[in-house]
Amino acid sequence: MTGTGAILNPQEIEAKSFEIIDAEVGPHGYDRRQWPVVRRIIHTTADFDFARITRFSAGAIEAGVAALRRGEKILCDTNMVKAGVNKTGLAGFGCQLDCHVADPEVARAARAEGITRSIVATRKGVAEGCGIYLIGNAPTALFELLRLAEEGSVSPSLVVGVPVGFVGAAESKEALLASGLPHISCQGRKGGSAIAATILNALMILAREA
Amino acid sequence: MTGTGAILNPQEIEAKSFEIIDAEVGPHGYDRRQWPVVRRIIHTTADFDFARITRFSAGAIEAGVAALRRGEKILCDTNMVKAGVNKTGLAGFGCQLDCHVADPEVARAARAEGITRSIVATRKGVAEGCGIYLIGNAPTALFELLRLAEEGSVSPSLVVGVPVGFVGAAESKEALLASGLPHISCQGRKGGSAIAATILNALMILAREA
Question: Which residue among B44, B139, B150 sits closest to A4, beta carbon to beta carbon?
């Protein structure tokens, strides 16, 4: 009835999971730095579509690794993304991790302007000089970040843009692709907070390697 | 470039998303109380597999609704699940929401016993009298809960058991099915923290209805 079998060590479980994913995916088009990110997304979701839909701009991994090593400030669009980031890992880089969507003054400003809290929270993160943007939920956060970049108000080191959903999510990711900003994203409707967090966690592992 | 179109109101976005999901899923085998839960999972993941793999024990919705209305204590296996639960909604029911996996004394006990922190955190939640269990990540948490139920140490009002992954996750959900405990779950490897949270959020909406 315990049913957990002989394997209990989390490192062993992860290694075994990665073996299964490698074997089931087979040949793929990702390079040796991209694949650990894609594999970790599949590990988080058990969804093999990500071996097909995950996208990297040229040099995105290197851009993310460099930003982590510089200790850049990170903005999350939801507290679920923030909760999913490995805090112990992040402390080693000295990066601050913020999410403003639940701040009372953000809610007040959103009501006053008749816009989403996600838009106001994005503006706040930009004003505070964040370099890495993790967007796992809100297309409006990603659209606002792209607007601010286009007007020259921000030049993100990396955009992890994986909003999920049926209205605006796919479109926001196509706009990210067209923007030319350094990004890790995915095509279509899928995405989510856990995926945004897991991409940063994968980048931290790469940044700790030589 | 803003690209968000005419729709910006979150309620309108949700209603439109639900329309799209209803249309694309078509006929399904869920009843009128189960479908809002399944639909919300698809809304959270954009993964239509959940229209096929989501499972409810008989009376699971009613059990969850009753437990919420009684203000029962809720245990989450990860802080991502906790972050994803609608706190404003929960406050209306007077339910306390706990997650012990990051507690320092849980880590110490896990090291001392050579077991996972998830097992120790589950024991702590049971000892504190939790009635609803949200397990989105750790198969060992679900196996431990089933073991404690089998030995008569706990009689959960509802188990939301949707651990994700390649080692133990599917097996833990089959064991949940076999246990006879009131549960909402899904078949196979898929699942995750966002799904566990969204199931509780859907139950809260049902519990507020007549």
Answer: B139
